Structure formats: structure tokens, C-alpha cells
Amino acid sequence: xKKLTNILKYVLLLAISAALMVYALRGQDLSRIGHYIRxxxxxxxxxxxxxxxxxxxxxxxxxxxxxxxxxxxxxFWQVYHAMMxxxxxxxVLPRMGEVIRCSVLWRSNKIPVDVSLGTVVTERVIxxxxxxxxxxxxxxxxxxxxxxxxxxxxxxxxxxxMARNRTPLLIAxxxxxxxxxxxxxxxxxxxxxxxxxxxxxxxxKFVKGLLAGIFSVLKMxxxxxxxxxxxxxxxVYFLMNYxxxxxxxxxxxxxWRAGLAxxxxxxxxxxxxVSGGIGTFHILVQSVLVAYGISxxxxxxxxxxVHGAQTLLIALMGAVSFVATVAKKAPxxxxxxxxxxx
Length: 342
Description:
The chain has helices at 2-25, 30-38, 42-69, 76-90, 96-109, 113-141, 143-154, 159-164, 167-189, 191-194, 198-214, 223-244, 256-271, 280-291, 296-327. By secondary structure, the chain is mainly alpha-helical. It has one domain. The model is unreliable at 157-163 and 330-342 (pLDDT under 50).
């Protein structure tokens, strides 16, 4: 039954991605899109893939710094392979890759999942802060061009309706507050009894390990180097998009502001809870390029080529890391099952 449920979940995720792709391609000239893809200058795309590899190495080095600050030792390649296996899993299972890469580290280095997962949470918080800064920069540079895109694509076009009628939001907030306070009161009243419960003790232990991983960055001795890797990684992401413009005649004249916009909204697309950002990435990147005067066909062709190249690279690098991990006798068969207890 559990295996059938997992299969149905995968099929549903792929169906959602397929539906989004159909939506992105609706009403467009497919032959023209094919022409753009066939005639693209793949030399520039090759450069973006090399840059992407450098970005992955930098991310792995940064993650290793976090683990070391949390008092957990692992070699660079062990950390790198675990990270790439997680990215490989994200192609099919959105966000499950974060748990899977921590599971790989537990199997190869006995690093507790709660601690490594805490460092991943910190990593994601930092990424969200950077992304928020990029979005603010984009809106400041060209508010009129992109505010409509933010409302339509990221907020579902419901901003005006929500602004006019806030009653449902206030009611929902009040209900959430009452429920939260009720749960806290119940926990406080039954705290002594809960402390005798084995499951509660395990949860508390897991949360403590999670917090240790989250705040590991504060204990880091080389904070400057950590910041440098963060800046380098996001600079690589920007250059990847900027150089990819050279693949197509229609996008070759776009400037750095367009590259920053594609990076920002493309990242939102990749963060969406769908398999590998399929569909959401394409819709958002196409919308950004249309806002800069690029045709729908050229916009979707750009998104297809860039996303396809990055997905292929992750699949290849992730597969190599998977084989390397298996070769070192780190059992991988049940990675998608239950997370090992810390």
C-alpha cells in the first residue's frame, strides 16, 4: 500500500508539471520555438554549465563549513556527494532532496540528521534573505514593469481583492492564533507527563539537534569566507543567466538588469513545490522576458534550453555522486523511506 501511495504521488507531481508546461506553451507557434532551440548558440550554454559546476562546489564547501561549526566532521567530497544526491532527488521529489542529502550524510559519516537538517534550514533562510534582497532591487530598478508580474504570477492576481476585503484574512489569523495558544496551553499543562513519553523525548532531542544546526553559523570562525562563498554562488547564478542571453539573437541585447530579473523570478519558479521547477520556472522566466519585449516563443525557448541544460547537469553530477556513495558502501536503497533516527 505504501509503495502504491508513493507511485501515485510521483505520478501526480509529474502530471502537475506537465499541465504547467502545457499552460506555458498554449497558443504559441511550436515550429518557431523549435527553430529557436535548434539554432541556439550552445557555446554560451556550455559556459553556463561550467559556471554551474563551480557554484555547486562552492555550495558544498559552504555546507561543510556549517557542519564543522556544528561540531561534525566530514570530507569535502562526502558533503558534495550527499548534496548532489539530494539535488538529484529534487528533480522528482520537490524539497525531499534536503532530507535525503542529510540521510546520506548519516549513512556515510553518522552525522545526526537533525544537526545536518538544521544547517540546511540555515542555508535556506540565507537564500530567502538574498532572494528577498534581489526582488527588492528589481522592484526598485523598474517598479512599473515588474510589480504587475509579482501580483499576477506570485500572488495569483488576488492582491486587489484581498486589499478590499480583509475580513477572511483576519478571521483566519484569529483562528490560527486561538489554535496556537490552545496547543501551547495544553503542552504546558501536560509537560511533566509528556516528559515521560518516549516519542516526546525523541522529538525534543530532534528539535535540539535542529536548533544546533541552525545556529551553527553563529559559531563559525571563518564567517568572512562563508559570506564570500555565498556571494560567489549567487554571482555565478547571475552570470549563468546573463551569458545564456547570448544563446539567442532575440535575447542577446538584454542588459544586466534583465539577467537579475530572470535570476530572481527563475529562482521563485525553481522553489515552487513541483518536480524540478518544471513549468513554474518556464512560466515565470517567459513572463520576465516578455516584460522586456521578447516574444513568447523566444522566451519559452530560452527557459526550455536553460532549464533543460541545468536539469541534465544535475542528473549527470547527481548520478556520479550516487555511484560514488554506493561504491563507498553507504547503503542507499531506502533513502526515500523513513529518515534514520538521530
